[in-house]
Structures are given as structure tokens and as C-alpha cells.
Design brief:
By secondary structure, this protein is α+β, with helices and mostly antiparallel strands. The protein is 31% helix and 25% strand. It contains 13 helices and 18 strands.
């Protein structure tokens, strides 16, 4: 059963979600990023991003501002265009950072050399957008990249970013962290990411603490000592979890005792799509871990209207399920849904599009997770399955 086409398709979906856009983190600007973004104000910048990426090399900041102004027609677009250009065209000077050698910092020098560290990124960004008529500040503070783990005291500020005023309020951005990442040999690899433009203030604060509290932009009394000791969360994981709908407070609370997995964000989004809530997901993670869920995407839709809010199945307990399954574009479904493991095979009862059933966990089930699967068969009559959900088992 486990070699069917449908499991292969599902595995590929999870593989892409897990491994796309992973980059290596380093302090003062080079962080691991994912394709998921969360913005304080939702804007569509795809056109601006594309146009800025194609701009020819400019002879001066003045000509650059003219070129950017030609593709950016609102203050939001001007702020984004500046972010795009700096992140896409300035390389992080990893050698200078790791060896303590001088690098360009002044905006004019950064523009000419095309490389710098965080201060240079922030100064160049501010220079560009101010020339386009925007109010912008360089924010100095503490950043949690990779090396903060070996420098827990953070005795002095180690990072710089920007705040830009749009529609009468301030918004945070970090062009350095949007520029790319370092590879295993500590060489800069450019890879633009828009996550750090207009990032929600509470998510931004997980890895950024400004010296001046006014630039937190939300109610927070956290001290530097508390910031240093807060549970470490990998940036790529934070992006995924916030993108799944989780609140930063829940993420930080869970991080004290829970190790997030790469598949958690996919399962959270699937659970919510299937009728669950973020609160259900938080409760499950507190109760032993996030079960796997797969909502079917463009193939089918599952609506769970009865399911246990538990992270693991416990021996001796009985769990009830009921769900509707609507097929969108998935010709492989045989119309059967079952509980399975290496020792379990039990069909759920079907009534139209509704499937229901219960399972009592036995001692022998501890060795394997319990799956809820759709039984499938390909056009070549190969048996397979598509996992809807999976729980681990413990005593």
C-alpha cells in the first residue's frame, strides 16, 4: 500500500514546503529565510519587485532615485523599491565582519562598492528613500542572528535596521536580512526575501531589540537581559510559524519547552483549513507535539467536525473522528478511509461524503503512528494512500 503514486505526490508537496529557500544564518544581517511572509499591512509588491530587479546599473544615488521613482508611484511602493534595490544589490561583507576589517558604511561608499554590513545597508536605504520624500530613521540595537548564541551577553549594540513612516505611522524593515545568506563556508549568497519589509512589530521583536524603546512600535517592556534569555527560535522557523497564523506570544511560550519541527507550519495551516483552530494547534503542541495534517490542497478538501485535540494518542484511550471529504481534482480516491499502522487497519463508516469512526489505542500501537488515510488506486491499478492525519502513540 505504501508505495502508491498518491503518497509520492504528497511527499513531494511536503518536501517542497520543508526545503525551499533555506539559507544559513549569521548575525548583523544574514538569516535563514523561508517563502512565507507576514506583513503589518498587506500590500502586493510583485510588480515593483520585478521592475526593480531589472534596473540597469546606475551611475549615482541621484540617478538611482530617479530610476526607482519611475517604477514606484506611491509612498508604499517607494519604500518597497528602496528595500528591493538595497537587498538585491548590496552584498554582505562577510570577510569584514568575521575578520574585523574596515568596510564601506557611508551610503555613498556602500553604493560605490556594493558591499557592507548592517550599518551600511541601513544608511543607504535611508538615503535613498529620504531622497524620494519619505521620512526614515536608522535604528540601532541588538540582533539575534547565529552568533548571538556564542555571545549571550550582547554587551553592545550589534545591528542596525530602519523604520520608515507610511500613511502616518512607522513601519519596520531590515534590508540586510532580506539580502540573502551565508553558505557553509561563510560566503555570502544573494537571495532576496521580502519578509523583512514591513514585518509585524511583534514578530520583528523576536530577533530585534532597539536601543531606543520607541522603535519597538508595540507595547513591550522587555529588557535586554530578558531579550537575551528569551527562547531561541530559528528565523526560518519563526517565519513559517507566523505565516501559519500562530501568534508570536504562543510561539515564544511554546519555545520554552517545545522543539518546533519543519512540518509544523504545514500541519497547522492544514488543520485550520480543515476546520480546526490555531488554539487547537497550540493545545496539541503543549500536549506532546503537532500531529501531521494534510488538507489536500487543490486535490480534495477535508472538513474535520469531530477530532481529538491532543498531541499524541495514549494507550487505553478511545478517539472519535468524523469528517466530510469533497473531491476537487483527485481521481485516485477509492471512497474508503481507514485508520492504519503496521498493526492496524480499520475502515471508517461512510455516509455520502461523511466518514466517521473511533479507535481505541492498544499497547502494541506504541511502535507506530496511527494514520488516517484515504485509500487510493492509480489508473494502472496500483494501490496507494493519501494521509489525512497522523498521531504518534505513547503510554
Amino acid at each position: 500500500m505504501c508505495e502508491g503514486l498518491n503518497r509520492e505526490i504528497r511527499t513531494n508537496r511536503r518536501f517542497l514546503e520543508k526545503y525551499m529557500s533555506i539559507r544559513i544564518a549569521a548575525i548583523c544581517g544574514i538569516l535563514a529565510l523561508s517563502p512565507v511572509s507576514v506583513f503589518a499591512d498587506v500590500q502586493d509588491f510583485r510588480s515593483v519587485d520585478a521592475q526593480v530587479s531589472k534596473l540597469a546599473k546606475q551611475s549615482s544615488i541621484t540617478t538611482l532615485v530617479t530610476a526607482l521613482s519611475a517604477v514606484a508611484h506611491t509612498d508604499w511602493e517607494r519604500a518597497r523599491a528602496g528595500y528591493d534595490w538595497v537587498a538585491m544589490n548590496v552584498a554582505y561583507d562577510a570577510y569584514a565582519y568575521f575578520h574585523g576589517t574596515p568596510t564601506a558604511i557611508d551610503a555613498q561608499d556602500v553604493f560605490k562598492t556594493g558591499k557592507s554590513v548592517c550599518q551600511g545597508y541601513a544608511d543607504l536605504y535611508a538615503t535613498i528613500v529620504r531622497a524620494m520624500g519619505l521620512e526614515c530613521e536608522v535604528v540601532i540595537g541588538y540582533g539575534k542572528g547565529m552568533s548571538y548564541l556564542s555571545d549571550l551577553k550582547l554587551a553592545a549594540p550589534n545591528h542596525a535596521w530602519n523604520a520608515v513612516k507610511l500613511d502616518g505611522s512607522w513601519h519596520l524593515l531590515d534590508a540586510t536580512w532580506g539580502a540573502g545568506g551565508l553558505d557553509a563556508s561563510a560566503q555570502f549568497r544573494r537571495s532576496f526575501d521580502g519578509f523583512w519589509f514591513d514585518t509585524a512589530a511583534d514578530a520583528f521583536a523576536v530577533h530585534h531589540l532597539p536601543q531606543d524603546p520607541q522603535w519597538r512600535l508595540f507595547e513591550s517592556s522587555i529588557t535586554l537581559a530578558e531579550f537575551v534569555l528569551a527562547p531561541p527560535i530559528e528565523v526560518k522557523m519563526l517565519e513559517k510559524l507566523v505565516g501559519s497564523g500562530m501568534q508570536v506570544g504562543d510561539i515564544l511560550g511554546l519555545a520554552k519547552s517545545y522543539t518546533f519541527n519543519d512540518g509544523d507550519s504545514f500541519s497547522i495551516k492544514s488543520l485550520v483549513s480543515m476546520g480546526g483552530t490555531i488554539g487547537n494547534a497550540v493545545a496539541m503542541m503543549k500536549d506532546g507535539g503537532m500531529p501531521e495534517f494534510d488538507d489536500g490542497g487543490d486535490w480534495y478538501h477535508v472538513h474535520l467536525f469531530e477530532f481529538p485535540v491532543t498531541g499524541v494518542f495514549k494507550v487505553g484511550d478511545t478517539y472519535h473522528f468524523a469528517m466530510d471529504i469533497k473531491i476537487k481534482d483527485f481521481p485516485y480516491f477509492t471512497g474508503k478511509v481507514a485508520f492504519t499502522s503496521s498493526k492496524v487497519f480499520k475502515l471508517l463508516k461512510r455516509n455520502g461524503d461523511t466518514f466517521s469512526g473511533e479507535i481505541t489505542i492498544k499497547e502494541s500501537d506504541i511502535a507506530d503512528p496511527i494514520n488516517i488515510i484515504m485509500l487510493t488506486r492509480t489508473k494502472d491499478n496500483e494501490a496507494g494512500y493519501q494521509i489525512i492525519a497522523r498521531w504518534n502513540v505513547k503510554k
